[in-house]
Amino acid sequence: MDLSFTPEERRFREEVRAFLAASLPAAMRQTVLEGLHVSPEDTVAWQRILHRQGWGGPSWPTRFGGTGWDPVRQYVFEEECAAAGAPRLLPFGLKMVGPVIMRFGNEAQQRRHLPPILSGDEWWCQGYSEPGAGSDLASLQTRAERQGDHYLVNGQKTWITLAQHASWIFCLVRTDRSAKAQAGISFLLIDMRSPGVTVRPITMLDGGHEVNEVWLEEVRVPAENLVGEENQGWTYAKFLLGHERTNIAGIGASKRELARLRRVAGLERKHGRPLLEDPFFAARLAQVEIELMALEITNLRVLSAEAERRAPGPEASLLKIKGTEIQQAITELLVQAVGPYALPFRREALLPGFDGPAVGPDHAAPAAASYCNMRKASIYGGSNEIQKNIITQLILGL
Amino acid sequence: MDFNLTAEQQQLADTVQRFLAREYAFEARRRILRSPEGWSREIWGRLAELGLLSLQVPEEHGGLAPAPVETLLTMTAFGKALFLEPYLSSAILATALVRAQGTAAQRQALLPALAAGERLAVPAHGEAGARYDLCRVATAAARQGDGWRLRGRKAVVLHAPAADLLLVTARTAGGPAEEAGLSLFQVPREAAGVRLLPYRTIDGMCAADVELDAALPADALLGAEGTAFAALSAAWDLGVAALCAEAVGVLQATLDATLEYTKTRRQFGVPIAKFQALQHRMADMLIHVEQARSMSYLAALQDGQGQARERQRALSAAKVVVGQACRFVGQQAVQLHGGMGVTDELPVSHGFKRLLAIELSLGDTEHHLERFLAASAGPA
C-alpha cells in the first residue's frame, strides 16, 4: 500500500504542468480562477488546443484518437487542469456519447462522430430528461416510429445543458410503446439542425441560461443514427451513467475553489481582523478541507479499483454524493465570506472584461450566483437521493 | 498509488482474523469482559506468539518495525472484534515510547520483553484539567539522593491494572505547559508509593487513576532528562493512526450488524430494511465508514519522513473524519436497532460505546480540528 504517486506519475504531472503553463491562455485562466462565466468560444478553443497536443480525449483509448491514459493519469490531468484554471471540458461528447459510440456504435458511426468530438468541431448535448421523466427516467414518452429508412421522432426533452450551442443531441426515445418501462427504449443520435427541432431557454435561479427545453416535432432521423440495437437503449444509458460519474467527485475543481475561498477569506475582515482568523469561520473552512482530503483518497481508491476492473462501479455514487456536498459547501462559505456584498446582483459583472463601476470588492460579484448555481449539483446526474438508492441496492444489498 | 496488500500482509490479516473469529467471538469476549480482570493473559500470550506484540519493535531488537500497514490491518481486525486487550496501551504507545526515549540499554532491557509478552507497560500521562494538551503536566520529579522523587496524580490511565510497568510523564523543569522539561520514568505498578484507583471505562476497558508519591532509582529515568516531549508526541501520533484503524473495524462491524438486523427485523409485514428512510440512513453510514477508511490509510502511511507539521495536519484530519464517523455511525446503528439497540445483549451497543471512547481518546474531534488549523496556518 502506497499513497504517493509513482515517479512516472510525478513526471507525468510535471509534463502536464509545463504544458498548461505554456499553452493555457492567460485570459481563460483568469476567467476561471476568478469564478467568472466561461464563454462557449473559450470552451471550444481550449478543446482545440488540447487536440493539437494530442490530448483531446484524456479518457479515451488510443484506438479512437484518445490518450490511452490510465485512471490515475486522467485524474492527475484533471487535477492539474483545474488548478491551473483551464475551462472544464464538455462531458457530453467526451464522457457520455463518445464512450457509448465506442462501445455500442458501428464503425461508420465511430468514423463519423468521434473525430469531431476530439477536435471540438461538434458540440453534443444530452437528451434524456423529460417533463415527466426526471429521476424516473424510464418513464420517458418521446417516441420514435420507424418509417422505412428513417425514424419519425415526437416529444419534449428538458434540462438540456448548453443545447443552445450544440449541433447534435443524443436522445433516449421510446421505440416500442407496448413494452414495459426500461424495455422499448432506443438510443438515437439527432442532428440539431433537423427541421422540427426547437430549443427554448430556461432561465435559472442565478439568472443564467445554462439549460433548455428541446422540442422534437415530426423530426426525421435517418435509421443509420440508431446506436446499437433497437429497444436496447436502456442498457447503453446505464453504461453511460457509469462513465458520467467517473469524475463527478470534482476533486481538482473543489481544491481550486477552496483556494479561492481562502483568498477571499484572507481579504475580508471581521472585527477588524482577516476573516480567515475568525475561529468560527476557520473551523467551518477546515471541516470542508478535511472532508475533501478524505474524498480525494476515496476517489483514488475507486480509481485504482477501476483500473483493475476496467469499468466504474457503484462506488461512483458515493463520490457523487460527497463530491457535490463539498462543492455546495464551498459556495455556501464563499457567500458567508463576502457578507453583505453577496447581495448586489449584476449579471454583467460576471462576464470577463467587465469594466463598469465596481460595487463591492471584485471577488464578491460571483459569490451568490455560484451558490445558487451549485444547487444543481445534488440534483443532476441522478439526484443524490437516487445515488443513495443505488448504494442501497448495489453496495448494501438491501 | 497502490492500495493493494503484499502477499505477506494479506496473510497476516487473514491470520489475525482467523484467530479472532476462533478465540474472540462475541460470547468469548463477553466472558473476558465479565472476568474480574477485564482482559485475558492467555490472549496476550497468543498475541506474542503471533508476533503482533513486536510490530512497533525495531528489527535490532527482534521486531518488525516499521510496519505501518501491518499495524493498520491488525488494529482494524481488533476493532471488528471489539478487542478489550491492552494492545494500544502496551504494544503501541508504551513500546513506541521506549523505542523513542529509552537509552540503548533500556531499549535492550525492555523491548524484547514487551514483544515476548513477558512484560506489559502502559503510558501514564493524562492529568485532570489537562484535557488533550500533551505538554500540560503537573506531576513532578525531583532528584533525591541517587534517584528521584515522583509526585502527582495521573487520570484515566488505560489498562493500568493490567500493567507491570507504568511509563509516567513528569516535569523535571519548565512551566506547566512547556514542551521542554518533560521527562519519562518507568515505574513498576507494584512499587511503593504507587496507588491505583481502579475502575472500568464505559466501553469495558480496565483503567485507573494513579496516585504517585514514590522514590525511584536513578535508572527509572528513560533517556535524557527533560527531553521526553518529542517521544511522547511521536508515540501519540502513532497511537492516533492505530486508533483510526481500529475505529474503521468497529465502524464496519457496526454497519454490518445494522444491515443484518434491519434485513431480519420485520414490521408492517416486511423487513424494515425495505423502508427508504432507513436505507438512506445506512447509505449515509456507509459514506462515513468509507471516508474514515480512506483517512485511516492516510494516517497509517505518515511514516515520519515528511515535515512534522504536514504529518500532524494529516493525522488530525484523519482523527476528525474518524471521530465524526464514530458519532454518526454509532448513534444511527443504535437508532436503527430500535429497542434492541439500547440493551446490552447485542454487539451494537458494545460497538456504540467503543466508538464513543475512540472519539474521546488521544484528542477528541474538536482538539484535532484545532490542531489541524494550527498545522495549516502560516506559509504552506
Write the layout of secondary structure elements.
The complex is a heterodimer of chains A (398) and B (380).
Chain A: H1 7-23, H2 26-33, H3 40-53, H4 71-84, H5 91-104, H6 107-119, E1 124-127, E2 143-147, E3 150-161, E4 168-174, E5 185-191, E6 197-202, E7 211-222, E8 226-227, H7 233-244, H8 251-267, E9 269-270, E10 273-274, H9 279-309, H10 315-338, H11 367-373, H12 384-395
Parallel strand pairs in A: 1-4
Antiparallel strand pairs in A: 2-3, 3-7, 4-5, 5-8, 6-7, 9-10
Helix pairs in contact in A: 1-4, 4-8, 5-6, 5-7, 8-9, 8-10, 9-10, 10-11, 10-12
Chain B: H1 7-23, H2 26-34, H3 41-49, H4 68-80, H5 87-101, H6 104-115, E1 121-124, E2 140-144, E3 147-158, E4 165-171, E5 182-188, E6 194-200, E7 206-216, E8 221-222, H7 229-264, E9 266-267, E10 270-271, H8 276-300, H9 308-336, H10 347-360, H11 365-376
Parallel strand pairs in B: 1-4
Antiparallel strand pairs in B: 2-3, 3-7, 4-5, 5-8, 6-7, 9-10
Helix pairs in contact in B: 1-4, 4-7, 5-6, 5-7, 7-8, 7-9, 7-10, 8-9, 9-10, 9-11
- Portion in strands of chain A: 5-15%
Task: Assign an overall shape of chain A.
Answer: globular
Average pLDDT of chain A, rounded to a whole number, is 94
One letter per element, helices H and strands E, the order of chain A comes to HHHHHHEEEEEEEEHHEEHHHH
* Class from secondary-structure proportions of chain A: alpha+beta
Tell me what portion of residues of chain B adopts beta-strand conformation.
15-25%
Largest sheet of chain B: 4 strands, mixed
Under CATH, the homologous superfamily of the largest domain in chain A reads Butyryl-CoA Dehydrogenase, subunit A, domain 3
**Number of helical stretches of at least 4 residues of chain B:** 11
Main pleated sheet of chain A = 4 strands, mixed
H-E order of chain B: HHHHHHEEEEEEEEHEEHHHH
Please, how many domains of chain B? 3
Distance between the termini of chain B: 23 Å
Rounded to the nearest angstrom, the radius of gyration of chain A is 22 Å
- Level-2 CATH architecture of the largest domain in chain B: Up-down Bundle
Number of strands of chain A: 10
